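Data card: per-record layout.
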Amino acid sequence: MANIYKNAQFDLTTTDVTDIYTVPSNSRAIVQNIHTANVGAANTEIKAFIYDDSASTSYQFAEHTVNSGDSKSISDGSIILEENDKLQLQAGSGNIFEGTCAILEINREDR
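The structure for this 111-residue chain is written out next.
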């Protein structure tokens, strides 16, 4: 099994739920941190979801208001994602949030 450290940058330009990272079909992943900055002019909320591919459903796991000019870690701990699951974010206003996710991807082909 190969361990691959990755990051996934994001710029939420809309208020739509946005896919930030999708786990490859031969891997699992640990999202170690989701860090965002409010680069806009208003205090705005951000929501985080896991799309569970096996259930075809999204589950919200975080919601925070981030003040203009501030940054925040929006995950309170590590998040485990299985094959084809997705990490998704949604902004209360477009063009407000930018950030990065720290991810450990574990390729399972060699097991």
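Known properties of this structure: Residues 24 and 84 are 6 Å apart (CA to CA). The two ends are 6 Å apart (CA to CA).

See the next section for split statistics.
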